[in-house]
Amino acid sequence: MGKLLIVGTVAFDAIETPFGKTDKILGGAATFIGLAASQFDIDSAIISVVGEDFPQKYLDILTDRNINISGLEIVKGGKTFFWKGKYHNDLNTRDTLTTDLNVLADFKPVVPEDYNDADVVMLGNLHPYVQLSVINQLKKRPKLIILDTMNFWMDNALDELMEVIEHIDVLTINDEEARQLTQEYSLVKAAQKIFKMGPNYVVIKKGEHGALLFHEEQIFFAPALPLEEVFDPTGAGDTFAGGFAGYLAASDDSSFENMKKAVIHGSNLASFSVEKFGTERMLKLNHKEIKERLRQFKKLTQFDIELQ
Ligand code: AMP
To answer: For atom 18 of ligand 1, which residue has the closest CA?
Structure first.
């Protein structure tokens, strides 16, 4: 069974969309990644930090899904990372209203012993120094290191981010962030610039417009499933990353052909995540629904055309 090590925030989120708003609910990049990856037959563990205010019932959500949380530090008297965001009417763009790092500000990650030989490491969104420190603690080079990040870290820790990007195999990033990182408007040129920074695979997520996979001269595109209702896009990118990484850990094959399938699995799981607030939809997901939607994905993208 493949071993997946996940790093990222475990958080409280407060979200406002055109359809409603929430108080503090369970969120965080590692949470969404872990929940998505738990759909695959793998061993997984999360490295993160929360405060004493983090409820046991949220920890149970992770352990009930067999996600190892021995690397999830609980800081006595500390406050959990808090993020507040507000979506615009098109749901494709949002404003971050609050980012309170709290316990994340002084976090020193410790890789659990059982996971320092992980096959796949998914470095989810959080301080690039924490991401780098995790890589440095590994006993052997994983088959695949995937990294996801966001504009917050480009604005606040760009040098550290560039340093960790040198060590990874796959960068997953959204379109605006790819443009910010490379100063290139064309996503093709942006991907080529990112190759020069270190990774040899780049996935550019375009929200409801799907995702692009780049490797050397090759490009693959996966649409997002057109949905009747999108309720809350929070965590879609992380859910994508979790599906992508979870599938790759389960299948032990990092060829371009298999990465294409990983992109489809990631897109498929993300399509569920946006249907309800926060993690709500991911917590009720079953294998039958996942399979049925994969079938829809296939139908959506298959066509016969005669080329003479
Ligand atoms: P996504 O919608 O995929 O970009 O992910 C949203 C999740 O990322 C939320 O659950 C937040 O808790 C978390 N998040 C927001 N800002 C940050 C940040 N600066 N670093 C790490 N995680 C963050």
So the answer is: 126
